[in-house]
């Protein structure tokens, strides 16, 4: 999300429903919610790069000028899309089980959501405005650690650590998938070209640790890497909880 020329006040007013209602345009047929839903559908189908106010207006069957009476610009639209996406998530504290079960459930669900919706990763990697969806989710995530002995600042650190880990691993999975997509007239993927080059032109003897890893079979795939890291992170939080008991 570009923030160089965006107006934080205007974005926050839109997120919290404090903006004046449009005084003109097809008010009965168009709402901010409908605009955001259509924008998310476009991003799901064609990627964030393909999303423009003109394409969105065409999808909704309205003029671009009418669209701007509801959403002043693309930065505001992206902020609304991200907060709406967060608001659709299951609240972490409502998950069954222990704190560890709840965190694992939210982490796995978010990882899957990010991998299936790469545009959401692109947006959270920039600025994440404090909208009702984001604050509601954070409130719920903090409640997961009620009764564990962690202080509120420690609980916030735990939530942010898990959230950052999930986003980083999801981004890695999306990037990995991109290297395996066929490109060029011969349908060769970036990964295919890289593997062939390394096999014929690079002496792995200069990298003994890597050579040993390859000798043990296929490297962990993105989901296996995610699960390993999640267990390690949860073990660390659990050790901290036990230390405070």
Question: In terms of topology, how is this protein built?
Answer:
Elements: H1 8-15, H2 32-46, H3 53-60, H4 64-68, H5 74-87, H6 99-116, H7 118-124, H8 132-143, H9 152-179, E1 182-183, E2 188-189, H10 190-201, H11 208-215, H12 222-244
Antiparallel strand pairs: 1-2
CATH superfamily of the largest domain: Tetracycline Repressor, domain 2
Count the E strands. 2
CATH topology of the largest domain: Tetracycline Repressor, domain 2
Order of helices and strands: HHHHHHHHHEEHHH
Number of domains: 2
Major sheet attributes: 2 strands, antiparallel
Amino- and carboxy-terminal Cα gap: 42 Å
CATH architecture of the largest domain: Orthogonal Bundle
Mean pLDDT: 88
Number of contiguous helices: 12
> Unreliable stretches, pLDDT < 50, 5 or more residues?
none
State the strand order across the main sheet.
1-2
CATH domain class of the largest domain: Mainly Alpha
Quaternary assembly: single chain
State the gist of this model.
The protein is mostly helical and 245 residues long. The chain has 12 helices and 2 strands, in the order αααααααααββααα.
């Amino acid at each position: 999300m570009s923030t160089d020329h965006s107006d934080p006040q205007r974005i926050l007013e839109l997120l919290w429903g404090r903006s004046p209602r449009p005084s003109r345009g097809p008010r009965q047929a168009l709402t901010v919610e409908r605009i955001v839903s259509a924008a998310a559908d476009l991003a799901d189908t064609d990627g964030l790069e393909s999303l423009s106010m003109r394409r969105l207006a065409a999808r909704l069957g309205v003029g671009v000028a009418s669209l701007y009476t509801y959403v002043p610009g693309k930065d505001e639209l992206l902020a609304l899309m991200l907060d709406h996406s967060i608001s659709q998530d299951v609240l972490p504290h409502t998950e069954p089980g222990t704190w560890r079960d709840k965190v694992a459930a939210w982490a796995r669900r978010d990882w899957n959501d990010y991998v299936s919706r790469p545009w959401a990763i692109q947006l959270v990697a920039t600025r994440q405005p404090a909208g009702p969806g984001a604050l509601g989710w954070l409130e719920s995530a903090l409640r997961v650690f009620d009764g564990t002995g962690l202080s509120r600042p420690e609980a916030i650190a735990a939530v942010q650590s898990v959230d950052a880990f999930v986003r980083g691993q999801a981004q890695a999975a999306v990037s990995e998938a991109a290297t395996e997509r066929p490109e060029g007239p011969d349908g060769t993927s970036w990964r295919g070209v890289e593997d062939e080059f390394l096999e014929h032109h690079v002496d792995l003897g200069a990298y003994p640790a890597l050579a040993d890893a390859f000798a043990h079979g296929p490297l962990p795939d993105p989901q296996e890497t995610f699960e390993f890291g999640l267990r390690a992170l949860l073990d660390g939080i659990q050790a901290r909880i036990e230390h405070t008991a």
